[in-house]
Structures are given as C-alpha cells and as structure tokens.
Amino acid sequence: MTTAGAEVPLVPTTHSGQRQRVAVGLLAGVALTLGAIAGYDLIPAVRFDVTRVPNAETGLSFTPVPGREQTGEWLDDSKRRLRCHYPPGTHQPDYYCAINYFIGTSPGHGVDLSGYTHVEVKAVYRGDVPKLRLFARHFDPRYSTAGDTNSTKYNAVFLPTHDLRKPLSLSVSEFTVAEWWRLMYKLPRELAQAELSNVVSVGLDFSYPMTEGVHDLEVQEITFVRPGLSRETWYLGILSVWLAGIVLYALLQLRTYRAERRSLQNEAERYRTRATTDPLTQALNRHGLEQRWARLQAGASATPGHALALLVLDIDHFKRINDSCGHVAGDRVLRELAALLRRQLRSTDWLVRWGGEEFVVLLPSARADHVAALAESLRKAVEAHAFGSDVPAPVTISVGAALHGPDEGFDALFKRADEALYEAKRGGRNRVVIAAGP
After folding, report:
1. Are the C-beta atoms of residues 416 and 404 closer than 8 Å to each other?
2. Cα dihedral sign for 330, 336, 338, 341?
3. Model-level pTM greater than 0.70?
4. Which residues contact 155 (CB under 8 A, 6 or more apart)?
5. 344: alpha, beta or left, given left = phi > 0 and alpha = psi -120 to 50?
6. Which of 54, 229, 383, 416 sits most deeply, having the most CB atoms within 10 A of its CB?
7. Mind listing the pLDDT tens digit for each residue in 327-341?
8. Helix intervals (H) in 318-392
9. Strand, helix or coil at 283?
10. How many CB atoms lie within 10 A of CB 62?
C-alpha cells in the first residue's frame, strides 16, 4: 500500500537512451572489427632462424675428389663462411659440398616446421654455379634410422644463384623430395611427399653438375617464418567476440526485460492498491469492497454454523472534533481509529472507509452468536483509546450490525446495518445495535 499523497513513479515504456547506447556500441564494434581485419598483417610473425644454432651444431660436409681429399673448408671461426673446391678436370657425379645446421635434440628428434609458410634466405655467393640447394632433412622411423644420417628424407628446393643478390623469400610449399633419394630408399609413393614436421637439419649445398673452380658462400640467415596467428584463427576470434557480445547483449536484454516486467507488475499492483485503498487510513475504499464482495459471492458457501456479517461504524460527534481541534487532528483520529480497528479484527476481516467518519467492517465468516460480542469489543476498544491531548473529548463510535440473509444482496444487507446504526445514534450513541433478520 502507498503512503497517503505519495506519487507513484511512472515506468518508461521506451528506452531511447539505451537504444542510442546500443547503436553507438554497434557502430564501435563494426569499426573495431574492420580495424581488426585490416590489422591482421600487423601481427608480428613467428621467426625461427636455423643459423643461430651453436657452432658445435654447424657442420661442413663434402665429398673427396681425386687429388683433393678436403673439398670444403671454413673461411672464418664463426662458421658462417665456407669455401668449396671443384678442381679442373674433376668428373664426380655424386659430388657434394654443404653447410648443415643440426637443429634436432637428437638424431631422431627434430623441430616441427610444418606450420611455417615461408623461408627467408640471405646469402652471399661468389662463383659460377647457376644454382644452390636449400634442404631440410626429415626423420621418420618408417624409413629413417639414427645410424644412417642419409636416411632422413631429403626435402629440397633449388635457388638460382642470381636470386641471392638480394634477400630471397620462398614458400615452404616449394619443397619437394629429391628423386634420387626416394629411389635410393625405395620409398612408396604415399610417403614421397615433402615433410617438415620433424626436421633434424637444414642447410645449403652445391651438387653435381658443378662448375670447376672455387666457390665461396657466406650464409647470413635461413629463417622459417609463420604468422603469429593464422588468418583463420584471427577471423574465428573476431567471430567469437561478436558471438560472445551477442550472447551477453541478449542476456542483458533478458535481464532488463525481467526487471521491467517486475517493475510493471509492481506498478500495476500499486495502481490496483491505490484504486482500492483509502490513502488516509489505508483501509479499503468502496471500490475495494465491491471487488471483494464480488469474489466472496463467487466463492464457496459459508462454513456451517457461520454467517457473513456487516458492521457499519460511525464516529460520534466527529464534526465537533474537526471544529474544535482542526482537520489535522481529525485526520489523525481517523488514521488511529483505522489502525486500532485493524488490530482488533482478524486477518480475514475487511475494514472499509465508507466515507467521512463512517467505516464498514465485513466479516466473511463469523459465528452468528459472536457478532454482537465482536462489535461490542470494537466499541469498547475505541472508547478506551487515548487519541492524544489535542483531542480532549473521548472518541466513541456507534455500531450497527446485520447478519447476511439467504440470497440477500449487498445493498439490502447494508441498508439493514445502516438502519441499526441510526437506531444506535438515536438511542444515545456509543452503543451497538443488531439489526433484525431480513
């Protein structure tokens, strides 16, 4: 119930401010999404430079030729510059001179380079050969053995030496398996594809046919490169953020809807209360009594031995209180009287302010022989109550009571109780009169 005179706040049915915030948030999300899509290329790449292994893991391999046992040599202690010899008149089909970077932790345990997309090569070559080979040796126990280093799969790509005049970037997809190696180890076709998931060594080599003379090579960098995130993962992340945002927004909207629904229900209840409650005394008003009387008539029949009863109460000489003490005191007397009567009544009884200083008490189910005693207890409680020093005269009430007769309507019942009230007033007030049956 609301306090007398209190304003009930209205619940807005539209939320323009919220819709504006949602629109701004949506535009911001679209802008951020476009920025994220455009910014994919700004994500730092993951780089693995195989040339940064310790010197002890860097090796020089070469094939002896007649008249020269050592056809390869280091030109500096950093093992980044090497020289390969192919003397004039040498005809060695299996000639080989290479720099190897052993990146595996053991002969059978290498590094997974399958997720890398490119290889960047920076090398300086001095000589006349038209091409070098970049190789990556892959260990697989199906065809490789730890005791035979040549049994690791030979994945390679040829590099034209004129392309090495500037840094060279190659796609990892350019690696193929050397045909001579596949034939040597009789590899079935289903295992003949390039593999980089367990690379144990990477390097550059010269191979037959070679150009006679001296060949100097300085290896500055061999770096495998892959995106910090795949494009698919990046876009999936953006999509996931949007989906999470949509779910969060839906949950917030659901929460807002439920809060608004509760607020509207409370608002409706407050208006129903205001429509059926007297704001001064918090007792029911006439409309509230009409609603409850209609529900009462539509309900089950009364308990045997009990009957519906109606009491009509009127404050004796209430006009004198208003005239002598003022309307503020008169209103306080009405409020205190209503509170006093509620304390005397049962929770199932209904107290109604009928108008002015007149009240109605509806007893939905009361023993017929107890109605007079209840009415008398109400009269005595009021007579004994002190309403304050500003109300010097004792406050009393007159009561008229009537028991509901068979098929009797409210108007007829009220008329009999009201006539009993006037009889109590004519009899000197501050008394109870029970109306005769219909």
Report:
1. no
2. negative
3. no
4. 135, 136, 137, 138, 175, 176, 177, 194, 195, 196
5. alpha
6. 416
7. 888 999 999 999 999
8. 318-325, 327-344, 371-384
9. coil
10. 21
